[in-house]
Design brief:
alpha+beta; OB fold (Dihydrolipoamide Acetyltransferase, E2P); 2 domains; 5-stranded mixed barrel; elongated
Length: 500
């Protein structure tokens, strides 16, 4: 007697799936053997879509159309068949009768599966139940779906799969596609606004010889030909300011930026930044521009300046609140930093309020820790935070009346930062001193500190005019205007940990 090997039986769901995959591949083999290989088709004449047919039904009723899309449901499949076709603009019902089509073609149509991509030629009409439809005259299989679509592809347990297989998410969840259509419109509206204010869109290098322009940990790569390490950019700032030196008075860039840091609902290692710089203005001018731009984009894309976030209505139409960091800490923490004169006093206050600090932190750093602990989550409605300490603002111009602080603002909405902006530091001597202070921090182990950028200092020595600059996280603005709760919901392909 032959030896019977022990085998682990497939679960019922796995058996069903295995059979589905076998059947679909068998259908493909039969099509190919009969000379109807869908993968041999290179193009299909499309002259209409579902949304246009429905929007202009009265004009199109009784007229021929040629459409293409994915079959999302099927029913009937006797002498009369119905299915829903999903194209780029939505869904429309297909109605097919055996006696109105070539018999062989109709029989093939009956065997097509949900998920198959079809080309359909037919006539626009309304069914007896009043549904706008296309009466099929000819149907062509353009691509065979060898994997069945999931019936339910949303819910907490499937969130990870949705991000990993965004292509499936987009097929079965129309609202997901809507988010990315809005994203595209938001970016277009930003460009339209800045172009309309005489800004010039430019492109600057993604690979840098040294990381700079922000406090962030960079990704490091190696250029084999030059045999040097290079860095994926952590900001767009320093190259754009070089262009201001060169005589471009208003420039902006919308581009990918990379930071080798943690991942959460607001952070992805690569993200989209807008940075804009304008000569002969300051941070107040950039504040006005930022507020007007966000309000204008919201109305352009949504038709309103009011959006809901976590059950709270955010009003972008009202003038944005303006408050300094010192005022915010006094208001929400009850600590008056105008009375704090020394680092020792700041450390004593931090200990008293159970705020942990590092040995390298200066008085300004500790003020910022107070803000992050007590104030940040209180700034729900749009609020410009101003008056940042120079200790945490290495590229910002000092306040004339109080050189410990800078002409800088951050925009907070719903407790999160959306924009960071300055009156740009254009004093090359002061800038060198701040770069050197950053380099010392880096040497002491601060991976987010920057080096001395000699070429940028050379540019400043040629003369940077008074300039206002701003940087905005585009993904976060998209989250705000679409109601998304995670940055992964507004990135088509977010960074994911490999399954293996």
């Amino acid at each position: 007697m032959a030896e019977v090997k022990n085998r682990t039986p497939l679960a019922e769901g796995e058996q069903d799936m295995s059979e589905l995959l076998r059947v679909r591949r068998e259908k493909l083999r039969e099509l190919q053997e009969s000379g109807n290989d869908p993968y041999q088709i290179t193009k299909y004449p499309v002259d209409n879509d579902s949304a246009n047919i429905k929007a202009n039904f009265e004009q199109l009723e009784g007229k021929p159309v040629s459409i293409a899309g994915r079959m999302m449901s099927k029913r009937g499949m006797g002498k009369v068949s119905f299915c829903d076709l999903q194209d780029r603009s939505g869904r429309i019902q297909l109605y097919a009768r055996k006696d109105e089509m070539d018999e062989a073609e109709y029989n093939r149509f009956k065997k097509y599966d949900i998920g198959d991509i079809l080309g359909v030629q037919g006539v626009v009409f309304r069914t007896q139940r009043g549904e706008m439809s296309v009466r099929v005259e000819k149907v062509t299989l353009l691509s065979k779906s060898l994997l069945p679509l999931p019936e339910k592809y949303h819910g907490l347990k499937d969130t990870d799969a949705r991000y990993r297989q965004r292509y499936v998410d987009l097929i079965v969840n129309p609202e997901v596609k809507d988010v990315f259509v809005k994203r595209s419109k938001i970016i277009s509206a930003i460009r339209e606004y800045l172009d309309g204010h005489a800004f010039l869109e430019v492109e600057t290098p993604v690979l840098h010889n040294q990381a700079g322009g922000a406090a962030a940990r960079p990704f490091i790569t190696h250029h084999n030909t030059l045999d040097i390490d290079m860095y994926l950019r952590i900001a767009l700032e320093l190259h754009l300011k070089r262009l201001i030196v060169g005589g471009f008075d208003r420039v902006y860039e919308i581009g990918r930026t990379f930071r080798n840091e943690g991942m959460d609902t607001r952070h992805n290692p690569e993200f989209t930044m807008l940075e804009a710089y304008q000569a002969f203005t300051d941070f107040n001018g950039m504040m006005d521009l930022t507020e007007d731009m966000i309000r204008t984009v919201a109305h352009k894309v949504l038709g309103t300046g009011k959006v809901e976030r976590d059950g709270v209505e955010i009003d972008l139409d009202k003038p944005f609140t303006r408050i300094s960091m010192v005022e915010a800490v006094q208001k929400y923490a009850g600590v008056d930093f105008t009375q704090v004169e020394t680092l020792e006093q700041a450390r004593a206050l931090a200990k008293e309020h159970h705020i942990e600090y590092e040995e390298r932190h200066k008085k300004g750093d500790i003020l910022n820790l107070f803000f992050e602990t007590y104030c940040e989550d209180k700034l729900v409605q749009p609020t410009f935070l101003t008056g940042h300490p120079v200790d945490i603002s290495p590229l910002s111009k000092r306040c004339k009346d109080n050189p410990e602080y800078t002409e800088r603002f951050e925009l907070f909405i719903c407790g999160g930062e959306y924009v960071n902006a300055f009156s740009e530091l254009n004093d090359p001597i002061d800038q060198r001193g701040r770069f050197e202070a950053q380099a010392a921090l880096k040497a002491a182990g601060d991976e987010e500190a920057c080096d001395v950028d000699e070429d940028f200092l050379t540019a400043l020595e040629y003369g940077l005019p008074p300039t206002g600059g701003m940087g905005m996280g585009v993904d976060r603005l998209v989250m705000l205007l679409t109601g998304a709760s995670s940055i992964r919901d507004v990135l088509l392909f977010p960074t994911m940990k490999p399954l293996d």
